Amino acid sequence: MLSRKCRNWRAGPGGVGDQTLRAAGSWPRRLAAWRPDVGEIAQGLERALRTRPIPSSTQARLRFLLTAYQGSTRRVAIVLGVSQRTVQRWVTKVPGARRPPGPLQVRAIEKAVLTRWQPRIRARRRAQAEAEGFVFHTRAQFGFAAPAGASDDPRVRRITQYLPREVARELFAAQDAGGGEQQQLVILARALGHAYFRDGGRRAHGLHTAFSDVEFADFSIG
Questions:
Q1: Which among 8, 13, 34, 76 is most buried, taking Cβ atoms within 10 Å?
Q2: pLDDT in tens, 62-79
Q3: Is the dihedral of CA 45, 50, 56, 62 positive or negative?
Q4: DSSP letters along 181-204, please?
Q5: The pairing of beta strand 20-22 with beta strand 151-163
Q6: What is the CA radius of gyration of the chain?
Q7: pTM of model > 0.85
Q8: pLDDT digits (tens, 9 = 90+) for 71-124
Q9: Coil, helix or strand for 219?
């Protein structure tokens, strides 16, 4: 369970509303993850479900897939959508015969490994988030607008906030349905606007927030 201290701790002023959203693809190198076309939210969720990183090299990932399929290059080829001969060229130990996979194939290998990496742990951590909620950590630009039209120039802020299990369920459901970064940001903005900035509806009524230029998004489960 999340501790009371973890649930209540907040970093920095401000919060996130549900009116203006824009993800601007600012991806720090230290957080570069499995696919360059996947946004920060999806990458953060993926990291939260793992206890160990996937193998770092393509050859190590291919060895993992071969182990998962009892050494069958044919079955690995079916998973990756290539010919068996292609997989054999990738993994052969014959001097001068090995051919490295291309960029699109490297991505396919990464995705195949991720979907098969720590399946029981991933299921357990997802179930825990859907039962207990999670702590969301982000650094992004936040700006504020009041009903009368007054506004605050956006500036980079860091926020850490506990979000309840309903938000986790909505995020995972959107991911299962193939929802993109924008849909995930809408879900998080609505949740953070209520829980963080408006303090559960107890203050700042009618004050809306712009959430943009996400630098990182991390999730703490348990």
A1: 76
A2: 999 999 999 999 999 999
A3: negative
A4: HHHHHHHHHHHHIIIIISGGGTS-
A5: unpaired
A6: 21
A7: no
A8: 999 999 999 999 999 999 999 999 899 999 999 999 999 999 999 999 999 999
A9: strand
